[in-house]
Specification:
Elements: H1 2-26, H2 40-44, H3 55-72, H4 76-79, H5 89-94
Length: about 100
């Protein structure tokens, strides 16, 4: 049972990632726009086809999509790897 749950969770996670990537790629407008959103005026009447969107509308649509997509990516800090700038020069040259 736990294997089935993990596979279904993985499938759901992949679907969510695919949907986020597709929405970002095709500049799909959000389904609902909060009233206090900074670009609410631009997002209200955004056409679904990205080719009919103005440059400002595409930017307003892509900002929250890009933010939500970046939240799903793993954080480099979690990996525990040291960046090259954090390692002393002597150690970098020794390798």
């Amino acid at each position: 049972m736990s294997i089935r749950r993990s596979w279904s969770g993985l499938r759901q996670s992949l679907r969510k990632s695919e949907n986020l990537a597709e929405n970002l790629l095709f500049s799909h407008p959000p389904k609902d726009v909060p009233a206090d959103h900074s670009n609410a005026g631009l997002l209200r009447d955004v056409p679904a086809d990205w080719r009919k969107q103005s440059k400002e509308q595409r930017a307003a649509v892509n900002q929250p999509l890009h933010r939500s997509h970046c939240r799903t990516l793993p954080d480099d800090k979690e990996k525990g790897k040291a960046r090259a700038a954090d390692v002393p020069l002597d150690e970098r040259l020794a390798n």
